[in-house]
Amino acid sequence: MEIVTYNEILLRIFVAIAVFLVLAFVSELISRAIKKAMFRISTERSVISFTYSASRVLFKVIALLFALTVLIDARAVFATIGTVAVAAGFIFKDVISNIISGIIIVSGKLFKVEDFIEVDQSKGYVFKIELFFTTLKTLDDQEIVIPNSILTSSIVINNRSFVPKEKTKNSNFLSDDKGVQDEE
């Protein structure tokens, strides 16, 4: 058994944090590059929003795994990941359901950004479709966040051609700094 000094532990922690921060920064650059490339090939906004959200989460998880391998033996990390993955499957079934539902929404083109949809008691324009949830913007400019699993398990009425007077008066109804914007 290897004896590790306090200074070695601090150094490993510092290196692990540095590795995570550098990789998190690089992952953000890669995610943004993917988003810009998708805009250049004029991909649908809902696909861009979903892919950007998913790539950010995926790359951050990879960065965290690399940082953990600095602290702990890589074999132990990956053996633990296998065990944790099984437990997490049971614990995070709703989260996994939202991710799969997001993939179904985007790939099945059930609706897209700027479609006017009604689900349960909510209705509004689709503002963003992300990894875990979809955001609607109502006619009175409120945001409604709906988990993707609800959208795939409920009846959704898509009124693509619906254009209310409020929207025609304000052409920037769905534009917001938080949404997916065209990048030059």
- The pLDDT mean sits at 79
- By CATH reckoning, the class of the largest domain would read Mainly Alpha
Q: Specify the helix fraction band.
A: 55-70%
User: What's the end-to-end separation, in Å?
Assistant: 56 Å
> What is the topology, as strand order, of the major beta sheet?
4-3-2-1-5
CATH architecture label name of the largest domain: Orthogonal Bundle
Overall form: elongated
The major beta sheet can be summarized as: 5 strands, antiparallel
Count of alpha and pi helical runs: 6
Structural class by sheet pairing and helices? alpha+beta
Approximately what portion of the residues adopt beta-strand conformation?
5-15%
List the helices and strands in order: HHHHEEEEHEH
CATH topology of the largest domain: Helix Hairpins
Write up this protein.
20% of the residues are buried. With 184 residues, the chain is α+β, with helices and mostly antiparallel strands. It has two domains: 6-91, Helix Hairpins (Orthogonal Bundle), CATH 1.10.287.1260; 109-167, SH3 type barrels. Mean pLDDT is 79; it is low at 177-184. A five-stranded antiparallel sheet has the order 4-3-2-1-5. The radius of gyration is 21 Å and the shape is elongated. The N and C termini lie far apart (56 Å). The protein has six helices and five strands. A hairpin with a 2-residue loop joins strand 1 (116-119) and strand 2 (122-129). Helix 1 runs antiparallel to helix 2 (45-71).
